[in-house]
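worker-03 picked up job from queue 'complexes'. Input manifest follows; two sequence lines, order preserved.
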Amino acid sequence: METKNIMIVGVGGQGSLLASKLLGHLLLSEGYDVKVSEVHGMSQRGGSVVTYVRYGDKVFSPVIDKGEADYIVSFELLEAARWLPYLKKGGQVVTNIQMIDPMPVITGSAEYPEDLVEKMEAYGFRVDAMDCLKLAGEAGNIRSVNLVLLGRLSRYFDLSEDKWMEAIEAVVKPKFADINKKAFYLGKNAT
Amino acid sequence: MKELMLGNKAVARGLYEAGCCFVSSYPGTPSTEITEEAAKYKDKIYCEWAPNEKVAMEAAFGASLAGKRAFCGMKHVGVNVSADPLFTMSYTGVNAGLVIGVADDAGMHSSQNEQDSRHYAIAAKVPMLEPSDSNEALLFTKTAYEISERFDTPVMLKMCTRISHSQSVAETGERQESEREYKKDISKYVMMPGMAKRRHPIVEQRTLDLISYAEESPLNRIEEGGSGRIGIITSSTSYQYVKEVFKDSVSVLKLGIVNPLPDKLILKFASMVDDLYVVEELDPVIEEHCRALGLKVSGKDRLPVTDEFSQNLIRNAFGMDVPESMSLPDEIPNRPPVMCSGCPHRGLFYTLKKLKVTVLGDIGCYTLGAVAPLQTIEMTLCMGASISSVHGFNKALGKESEVKTVAVIGDSTFMHSGMTGIANIAYNQSNSTVIILDNSITGMTGHQQNPTTGLNIYGDPAGKIDLEALIKAMGIERVRVVDPYDLKECEEVISEELSVSAPSVIISRRPCALLKYVKPKAPLQVDPEKCRGCTACMKIGCPSISMKDKKARVDETLCVGCNVCSQLCAFDAFYTTGGEV
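worker-03 finished. Artifact:
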């Protein structure tokens, strides 16, 4: 199988590392070769962060380059827009609609672009956008945005729900498993 | 067992399996997790954070001398600090195996330069292994110990950001114990001129022996591909990009031992192909070696010396098509890293900005004091340079700068290499003001303990250095402590210490807001009736505060109630329901 590419993007501190850990675990258990590339250090301090997940028969490069991503999973709307050049033609964006102002917007030297979801759609990008923060809150913890997003992403994968549940149990602390499973379902089934 | 493993974790697993007993390191991105993961094998491997890389390397040398396999990990710039022991350990050799892990940072994800560590291996005449994924990281770590003991040399294991911080599949094995006895050997371990003179030829012969080893080692391999017209010599993450782009359509000489290089193998490979290329990040080390062998080779004429590579960069360099890519026409504002909500450094930097002070900075989270809107730090060089440089700055300009210049340095960085700078101020007497930003942790690298925190790498109680007593004992009489959340106190103390004709140290003390034991207070709220939209609170660059409809707004998911912003509000617009969350 040709290597598939998933980018997980967001703002440092939003919890994207758990999402990539879960995907890595799941894909490895499906028998794929997997590489996951993370960002540590300075960029974690509220900066724009990206994690690359690649899987297939044999994966070489640990990173995803422009025009290569099959999926962009974004924790924040501006970050989804920032990383669009990495999306493959016909690739899918799955994004939280939460907006977090970056420092240049806070200081007034730049503007947060308006109507990003509509613009992305108008330019032909396939976008699946939803209020993950709200759904995470419904699941019982606003920190479960990552599982809401993964639940949504699971709609594009030909994998049984059991496999996802097994991965959640393997990766998440037992006391948070129920909340995370609920978040997963809310993300998956949201209209 | 096969496991998806971070490259750094794979090195730690290799240490465990190789029977390593001793690890001493100083944290530095992207190397830090090697030592953190090794510390999880507490029963078998003793681990510690040393005050700096020189101490760490010498401690590891001591353990090797005593007969236990030892390791010391650092980022690329850490080798600068520990170059002194490194160069002479090359002469003494080792007793039990000694491996030095160094992680380069091409692309400078979290570093002040992108120096290429291979130059150190060449200059110190020690072998260097360079894995290209987690499985190799584990395997090469074990091989490094075999090489170290067989050739009586420290061995450098070179990682880089993309290998250290990528997870790939690694196969684990069992631990094998390995110990040696310590034997007194003055001629080998005491490097004074008469003895070092006899050791140097041994080092030169060792390099020749290592070249022979490298010619045959399975760590260097030829992968034949295509018609044999194109041949690429590569290593590390560059190998992965080459394979990603060319698959099996070219021949590849994949080097796992990057010092010393296998001359015969390179010549053999060159003879197998029509056109020879070298693909290596940063400096043209392999390429120049090929030229010295008389080979016609292409490398840096098509590939950059700066920054990290990627598959598209290789595609472009070889005139191949890159995948189609699209973006929105909108300007997407940057999202640079910022000081966190409740960061204790923020209040202090705001005060320095207000007082129009010239700030010479150092390495840590607080380097972010150089970015908008605070833009306070005017110089950052290397660990400890703030203190040494403020002394030189003040000596050069005298009174005019003494009253308006400070050095700022974190607690961990101060223990790393700030003390010698203080010694110089105390000894050669400049009226310098040094501010130690004591947030009780090594912050930027992800919360490691240090000699001032009172805890060791395992979180157990440990020796705790008393900063005030230490600085006074070094001859600085004026030592003040301030709370950076208290802007009035900060302003008073800084103004006072700048104006006195004596060297002084101000300790700005408040633990990092991200530490688990620091309980956030209730988030602040803004009374829209009182807020005039004057934006005074925006001057501190807090990610929790933004302006919506000309009123300040606090993001309650981010705010930890530090209360610094409310001290800037002339209209009492901020309020809190109080208490801890």
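worker-03 released lock.
Chain A has a mean pLDDT of 94.
Chain A touches chain B through 62 residues (CB under 8 Å).
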